[in-house]
Amino acid sequence: MARMIFDNAFIEKLKSRDKKAQEAFYQQLAPKMYGICLRFAGNTEEANDILQEGFIRVFNHLKDFREEGSLEGWVRRTIINTAINFYKKRIKQGKKTELENVREKTDSKQYIIEKMAADELIELIRELPDGYRAVFNLNIIEGYTHKEIGEMLEISENTSKSQLSRARKALQKKLISIKEKEQGGKKPTKH
Amino acid sequence: MEKNQQNIDHLIKAKFDDFAPAPPEHVWKGIEKGITSKPAFFVRYGKHIAAAVVLLGLLLLGVWYFSSRSAETPVNKLQMSDTVPVNTSDEPATLGNPGEKKESATLNIESGETDNISSDNQESEIVSAGSSSEDGANNPALETSGNSKIASAGETVSVIAVDHGEVSKTNNALTMRDENGIFSIPSLSLAFNNTVLPKTDVPQNTYAVQTVATQTKTKTPGLWSTGIYFTPEMYFENYDSLKTLPSYTLSVEPTYYINKHLFVRFGVGFTYGHDRGYTRINYSGKSLLGTYEDVYDVTFDSVDGQLVATYYTKTREIWDTTDQIVVKEPTNTYFYIQTPLMLGYYHRSNHINWYFYGGPSFNYMISKNIEKPINDLDYIELLNVDNHLPTRSDYYIQLWLGAGIELKVSDKVSLSLEPNYRLTLNDFYQEQSYKKALSGFAMRFGIVYYFK
Q1: For A138, A152, A190, B436, which has the most beta carbons within 10 A of its beta carbon?
Q2: Considering Cα of A81, then A83, then A86, then A91, what sign does the dihedral take?
Q3: Using CB atoms, which residue from A31, A94, A158 is nearest to B22?
């Protein structure tokens, strides 16, 4: 994954709230961050809201950036934290995570995943219940440990693990369903 | 299996490595609106802060207005109703019997309003219109006895204040009353000891004392008191799933009395507050489905020629994992430092004082305890937590409007009771759905000590 590097002069401009620098910065990073938002959000509208609120937080709190790590990484963490806040609000507003009973199947889904485009995969991830999706994104894609996820989402480490396990099962079920549809659509050939 | 899963995880991760879709254009416009040059604090609470500043400004203006009014009193003239003749000859004029050079005259004026005002703080001046004489022996001597002063001509000594008042001399004693016949001047005595006024300084057909312009300056320097207050506070607003329980404050609040009626109160207090909410928890847990008797041994015995089987059993419990729902009521507790700044009006009487006041109070959270609705031991798998207990903001600003009465226990100690309305000016809770102006009622119980 290629990372963008911003020089100190540009960062100083951002800190002094230079409008042009802000817009250029947004144009550079927004697509990548939007990808994250789409993964975490339940729908596109919410992804837009996360991106907007996340970048407002970035610009308003840029003075807190200590230049110890990469600016892109700091923005990424801010966007993820914003997405987590959205998730927590949803949970507290009473939108509960549904339990899905998924039977384990050991088939390899690698082929299907390889064939799928990222946006198709996002559609599958979006269909996961909120809690599953948050843990799945944080662990599988962002690489956070279950302990870190527990602290971020205010759940126990075990809960994070079980949520991930269920997320995987749910995702597998969806992949199998896609595979079965594909196979059902193909007519058998006679020799 | 695990390796297979890792491969899938890796594939999914790789899919998103370069995933960078273009966001809609309107998002940037929203960001532009949201970016402000002001710090977030002032953006969010700017209106409340401005309102508090304006209110404080008005209160200070009121303090200045009333305190300046009480400090300024008009220049008054005293009129002598006695028949002291004006000395028109070259002989020095004397006050009292013109034939007696060593006569003394005394002015005694009693004040009816000396309550809570130290006599040491009363100062009066008499400004003589005449010029001083070169002859020190003939000058009216300046003597001080207690709070009374006697001035030589031209000297500023003390103050007597009565608008259109009248001074009379009876039996060498001078009394004063105002138009309403009410004596309202602090205690004062004047002694004229061989007060010889120069002829040129005494206008014709006037009394000697008429040449004396008097001016009152009633200074009322600050009085301090300190109160210790215990305050239970209840809140008016209700939420469906949240009980904002009463909070309790113990505070120490010094009060500075700007003048007889106005006071400023400030101080510091420690507040304990707590909220109780509801949390619905869906979890997968072990349930006792029932019991059965497990036969672990059977013996056969012959009793009276008949075979009898004896069964030895143990009671076995049947447990299984089931999805369950439980509702809990967790309680969050908070501790704040409270710093009120009040301006008020005070009315004193002999036994009971009353007052009212208003102003902002700043409350900063110093500690909190957020109760977890469920712990790991309660469940095998936590499916969902639907928490309806919001967390409070790190600080809040209140506007207080209160009134109170004080019962004097002794000259320096009073007991106070203050009903108090409070309006929270910023968000009391962090969560969006709980954001509304919170108001409450408090009853303050206090013991007040006056530093006299």
Answers
A1: A138
A2: negative
A3: A31
